[in-house]
Structure formats: structure tokens, C-alpha cells
Design a protein that fits this description.
Radius of gyration: 15 Å
Structural class: mainly beta
Largest sheet: 5 strands, antiparallel
Strand content: 35-45%
Number of helices: 1
Helix content: 10-25%
């Protein structure tokens, strides 16, 4: 999994409400948190409001279970005129034993928008 800062953008404790019929966490729950973590990085980089444009293919390498503490590490990898791309790496700290496993990663592209939802330039300070 690609290197990302070791200070997570977000951390989430997985709860029973997040499980599928197999007893593991829904992939969609993880995708939602990837989107949020990437947005946190874009906002920290100076964008006031962003909307998601794309998320590249996400391949799950390990399951996530109830009780796992899941960390989402985010790093800005590309800045365009009105868009910003963030790499989000996901790891799960197991409730039993405390071992951390790499779960997945994704590159998420956001567009910086104004209050009306129209694209605006990404701040120059990036």
C-alpha cells in the first residue's frame, strides 16, 4: 500500500450496524469513510468546499470486522486548476491482538466549488 502520512485524517470504530450478511463491514461503509477522509485532506489544504468527482478502483485486501479501529490516512497528491486529488490509505487495527492490517487505498478527486456549487480555483498556497 502506498505511503501516506501516519497521522490519520479520521479514525472510526466499526460497529455492528455496519455489517453485511457475512459478518464483515460493508464495503460501502469503508468507501464512505474514504470519501470523508479525502475531503478532510482537501479542506486542510485550503479548499473550503469540495465535491467528489471520481474515486479510482478500490480493491479490498483484508476484511474489516466489528470492533476494528479503522484509520484513514490522506495525502494530497495532485492539484489542478479547480481540482485536487487525494490518496487515502486504509488500515484496520484488530480488536483481538491489536495487529494492524492494510485494507485498501484509493485516489479520490474533488472539485473545489463555491456556495452555488460551481467550480472555483484551488487556492495557490498548495
Amino acid at each position: 500500500m502506498p505511503d501516506c502520512p501516519r497521522d490519520p485524517a479520521i479514525r472510526v470504530l466499526m460497529m455492528p450496524r455496519d455489517t453485511n450478511a457475512h459478518g464483515t463491514i460493508f464495503g460501502g461503509v469503508i468507501l464512505s469513510h474514504i470519501d470523508q477522509a479525502g475531503a478532510v485532506a482537501a479542506i486542510r489544504a485550503g479548499c473550503r468546499k469540495v465535491v467528489t468527482v471520481t474515486m479510482d478502483a478500490v480493491e479490498f485486501h483484508q476484511p474489516v470486522y466489528v470492533g476494528d479501529l479503522v484509520s484513514y490516512y490522506a495525502e494530497v497528491t495532485r492539484v489542478g486548476r479547480t481540482s485536487i486529488t487525494v490518496r487515502v490509505a486504509v488500515s484496520a487495527e484488530r480488536r483481538e491482538g491489536g495487529d494492524a492490517v492494510d485494507v485498501t487505498s484509493a485516489d479520490v478527486t474533488y472539485v473545489h466549488v463555491n456556495a452555488e456549487g460551481r467550480p472555483i480555483p484551488v487556492p495557490d498556497n498548495l
